[in-house]
Write a structure and sequence with these properties.
The protein is 16% helix and 23% strand. By secondary structure, it is of the alpha+beta class. It has a domain of 41 residues.
Length: 69
């Protein structure tokens, strides 16, 4: 379990072990979802769908840019 403190400005530092586990890098975006029961889900958005490539069965990987051509 890891803890962080919120400053008077509402800021906090994400602990190093959490940043490493989430593979967070400077500039990555973090999205917060608050559920009705008070649970907070934190999602790291450090990949774009544009970074994903698909490999058809028996074929080579094709990027989205190549599919769009």
């Amino acid at each position: 379990m890891t803890f962080a403190t919120v400053t008077s400005k509402g800021q906090t530092t994400i602990p190093k072990d959490v940043r490493a586990a989430a593979n967070l890098k400077p500039g990555d975006r973090i999205h917060f979802t608050v559920l009705g029961d008070g649970t907070i889900i934190v999602r790291v958005k450090n990949r774009s769908i544009r970074d994903v490539s698909f490999k058809p069965p028996g074929g080579k990987r094709v990027s989205i840019a190549q599919m769009n051509r």
